[in-house]
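Q: Predict the assembly, please.
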Amino acid sequence: MTIDERELAELTQRSRDVHADAMHEAREPLAEIVEVGREQRSRNELDPEVGRVFATKRNARLGKGLGLLGGVGIGAAILGLFERPAFAGKASDIQMLQTAASIEVLAIAAYDAVLGLPFAGDLPAVVQTFVTTTKDQHAEHLQAFNAAAKALGGAEQTMADPALAPVVEQAKPGLTGPGPVLDLAILLEDTAAQTYVANVGALEDENAKKVTASIMGVEAQHVSVLLAVKALLDGGLVDQIALPPSDLGALPAAAGAVGFPNAFYPTELAAPADQGAVK
Amino acid sequence: MTQHDENQHEPIAISERQLTQMTTHLEEAHQATLPVMHQAVAEWDDRLRSENTPDELAEMRAKFGRPSRRGFLIGAGATLGGLVLAACSSDDDSTSSGSSSSDTKASANSALATDLKIAALAAALENTAVATYQAGIDAATAGQLGTVPPAIVTFATTAQQQHKDHAAAWNAIITGAGKPAVDGIDITVNDGLVQPEFAKVTDVAGLAKLALALEDAAAATYLSVIPVVSDPGGVKTAATIQPVEMQHSAILNFVLGQYPVPNAFAKTDGARTLSDKIG
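A: Predicted assembly structure:
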């Protein structure tokens, strides 16, 4: 291998330092979410206007079957909130954040599985570092999405995305070499990136939007690296998968653009908002 | 493999073909994503039409009509971007003082004016990137950067084309609002970063560092404006572009021997603001 292990270790450490700084930045919007969530929950329990709204709309919309709840303050408040567009947006935001968390859970599990494959130790050193570092980054993303969901009054999502998990399970027997591993990783990363791009356009809570936006581009970068590595592997240029690259002049011209195929990030693979929501 | 020069022909001939095939597929995928961008732009246009009467739209177009674009460029030493920003400011003024407008409409128009200022800044940043890549390509063609690997040439031309696409998207929004397209660059960035750094560039690595600084600034700017833009179409446009700029950064980091995904969360450090001079 052409890679300088010591230099790679130093780079990784520097990357972690920078990452720690970025985490600090991500905590700010999360703290804002927590504060907003507290305020909203406080209002939900105490605002008598909410109960009045519920009482007015109860007979018209919910009928006698829910009449008993009219005498229960919190129940009235909760049902009354469903009539408010803001709550509808909040519920949808929570679902999107939980779905995002479920994709992160699956990505972490998938990279864990890769590290346990018999040939994992034979992968280029820079790829091994990428798998480990990327898994850690997804763990940070999971934490951020769950914190955001909790701050809006939702539950943490600890389960893998139910629609994508079977895809990973079906792929596992075929993970007999780097090629299929890269294909699976590209699928997961691209699905995550596309989902988050779509969610940024749909989220209503400003801070949930900030958190998601700060993650979507990172998943897109994972896609870039994986596409480039796969192209070099497919092209028989394993010795070029190094950091720094051993010989840029030896790369074919087309390799220069293989990592960013779209001028606008697509969304056709985006998971539906409620796909990974806590049931 | 012994000497690259002796052995690279055969493997590269194969990998070039494979990579070219991949690039073709990816180009098709890119074309498939364009409707997403067009939809976002169309949503913006729909909003304009829904919030303004035909007479108001006609008045906007008469006030900031496209036919005078060339006149803007050469007139009185004023910069085009400055005029666009001034036009948006004029919207602010007119809405705040208009006796017939409701507060709600004034607020909506103010938000729209801010959105258009952001669109103008984004278009100028994209134009700056296009111009910088062109300067790099010209320098490489003139032999001023030493030996330039073919993959780097492909990277520069592809990234440049994507920045042109991004600028076109923002300008579609701007012209849809009846204002002239922004053909100018971000003068603040050009004078403060591009010109002084480009003067020091003597090789591919130097050019890559400058390109990385621009890509990072663009990605940071999009991340910072996503929570600010009020129009859903504008948010979607920024959300589909920001990950692509981060992908450019990942590949540039790789070229420079730096870890390609250094942060778990994208950062807003270095984001450009509306105070930038455009022209």
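The CA atoms of residues 7 and 217 of chain A lie 26 Å apart. The two ends of chain A are 48 Å apart (CA to CA).
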